[in-house]
Each structure stands twice: as structure tokens, then as C-alpha cells.
Design a protein that fits this description.
The chain contains 13 helices and 15 strands. The chain is α/β, with parallel strands linked by helices. The chain has two domains: 77 residues, Fe-S cluster assembly (FSCA) (GMP Synthetase, Chain A, domain 3); 264 residues, Rossmann fold (3-Layer(aba) Sandwich), CATH 3.40.50. An eight-stranded mixed sheet has the order 10-11-7-12-6-13-14-15, sandwiched between helices. The protein has a three-stranded mixed sheet with strand order 3-4-5, with helices on one face. It has a two-stranded antiparallel sheet with strand order 1-2. α1 crosses α2, α4 crosses α13 and α8 packs parallel to α9. The longest helix is centred in the C-terminal third of the chain and has 17 residues. The protein is globular. The protein binds adenosine-5'-triphosphate and magnesium ion. Magnesium ion binds next to α4.
Length: 351
Amino acid sequence: MNFTEQDVLKALSHVDDPDLHKDLVTLNMVRDIVVNGNALSFSVYLTTPACPLKDMIKNACLTAISHFIGDHVVVNINMTADVTADKKTNAALPNVRNIIAVGSGKGGVGKSTIAAALATTLSKMGANVGILDADIYGPSIPILFGVQNHQIEMEVVEGRELMKPVMAGEIKLFSIGFLSNPNEAVVWRGPMISKALQQFITGVNWGQLDYLIIDLPPGTGDIQLTLAQTLPISGAVIVTTPQNVAIADARKACAMFNMQPINIPILGIVENMSYFIPEDAPDKKYFIFGKGGAQQLAEQFKSQVLGSLPISVELMNDSDQGKMYTTAALENFTEIAQQLARQLAINNSLN
Ligand SMILES: Nc1ncnc2c1ncn2[C@@H]1O[C@H](COP(=O)(O)OP(=O)(O)OP(=O)(O)O)[C@@H](O)[C@H]1O
Ligand SMILES: [Mg+2]
């Protein structure tokens, strides 16, 4: 029995994106349909390559084709992605679809490690990713990727002289540490840093980015406030450890992002160093620093816990040695990256 492209679209209009609550055809996710006798191929463009619902949506498409057209059809689905943009970010920076700020109230909770790991995970999933290290106190992104001795080069793009980002695999990175004399920079005030960062955002040849991740300096002072006000940030990820002192500082960070007129959505909270699993007793899980604080914080700010990460000697050693791109500890970040990308896509669909 013959069928047409229209039949395919009609069948797939019965498949909803569970997060966006609309069907795939209305969302313009179904493209490149080719019908050849009994053979059908098409692409589904998800809102992010990190979509945790990829397999579920693919299966729903197969079921719909079989049900509405027939089980004689030989279907080949190419699951791909066209990352949706935050309108605010994209209006300010036409090459950048989303900016994710990674912040915390307290220092040393693992913000840079998590920013680097999320960037790497999203990049390996197929997204175009950049990281901007905005931490003047301790620019650690170059160390995490082992590029701390890199010299910045310039290149001319369409008549403009731009700084070349440093590559870590497919990730483009840039750090305030590449340029500033650190002893000088630490006395900078918010507006100066904000101005420098604006220049990094527009003066670096980032190319097309699905996600630009900004590693913010710790704290909720003048500097963080100016950055939150001046950069077109799509959403924030707050990192905390389980101790009450860390949660109290993370609460201040959430309150800052929530403040009017800043109003930056809190995409979620990552609880770092949540528990410890001994190597010689992998069935045991010790909650050394306490439990439950991140969840309470998420509820207070109507957000979510994106995930909890174990204390990992491997992560610590590999990041210290600049092996962030290849560390096996990245496996702990898959779900967090998926949940983060998913929340951004949901927010983008509502704007
Ligand atoms: N889950 C973890 N397990 C073990 N060590 C970790 C973990 N997360 C981070 N670390 C280690 O903790 C230290 C601090 O991490 P990191 O530099 O990422 O924190 P930060 O919040 O960015 O700090 P700062 O406030 O100074 O910017 C690093 O040595 C890092 O390797
Ligand atoms: Mg840091």
C-alpha cells in the first residue's frame, strides 16, 4: 500500500514531545522525509542532543508509523538535534543560543570542576559548547583542561580582529586568566570585570555555540551581581555541598539570581561531594556531610536537584592533572547534563 509524505506527517502528528506538550509536527521537529516504495526515512530534530527522552520519542514514532500507515513500512529514523535558543541570549549574541552560568555562594564547592565536566559532556553528546572562565580569583578552567600555558592568538574574521579560543577537544574555552595579570585582576571591581567579560564574549571567535557555560567567581557580592545584570544569561546552575554552611551560601546565590530585575531562572542545583562509596565496599554509601539540604533549597526556589555527585578521588586527580576531557569520572555527569539541557529547552519553549 502506497503512502505519501502527508500520511507520514499525519501519523507523526500523534506523537507528542512529553516535555513541550505539543506534537512533533507542530514543533517542526520532523524534517527530511523521504518515501521510496515501502521505505521511509526522516529526521527528528530534538531540542538538544542531550535529550533524555530520545529513545522514547523514537519508539513512539515507530509505533505511530506502524499504527497509522502499516507495519509493512521499513522505517529509518535519524535522531538529531537543533538546539533551541533563549530569545534574550540570542538577541544579544546572534551566534550563541544559550548561556548557562555556573555559580555558588561558597568557594571550593566544585563549581569549576562541574562547569568543565558539563561542558565536556554536552560537547561529547554533539552540542557546540564554549566555556568562559569568569573567575578572576582563581581561573581554574585552563588548569582543568591542561592548557594553562597557552598564549592567546588573534585572527581576522570578516574584517574584525578576534581572539582565538583555546580548544579542548571540540570545546572552545577562554579564561580571564589568559589575559590578566592575576595580581592586578583581583582588585578589579564588578563593573571592570563585567566590561572585560563583555569583551571576551564579543571579542572571542566563538563561532556558533549551542551552550556557552560561564564559570562564575564564588560569592554573591558586587562582582557577581554586576555579571548577572549585564550578561544575557539564560539560566543558572547552583553548585553546593551538603553542609549547612554551603547550603546557606547557595541560598544567597539563588536569591541573587531570583532578584528583580535580574530574574535569571535557576535551572537546577547540583549537590557535589554528596556521598562516598569506598572502593573496597562498593555496596556502601556514606553521606559524610549530611543529606537533604539541596532538595530543600530546590523546593524553596521552585527548582530541582539536577543530580548528586559522589566524592571521587579519580575526578579530583584527573582534574588536577588537566585531564578533564578524558576522565572516566565524566560518566557521573550524563544525567545532570541531560536534565540541564532539558530544562533549558522547556524554558525556551515557554519564552
Ligand atoms: N566530587 C568531587 N570529588 C572529589 N574532589 C572534588 C569533587 N568536586 C571537586 N573536587 C575537588 O575540589 C577542589 C575544588 O573544586 P573546584 O575548583 O571545582 O571548586 P570551585 O567551587 O570552582 O572553587 P572556587 O570557589 O575556588 O572557584 C578541586 O581540587 C577539585 O578537584
Ligand atoms: Mg572555580
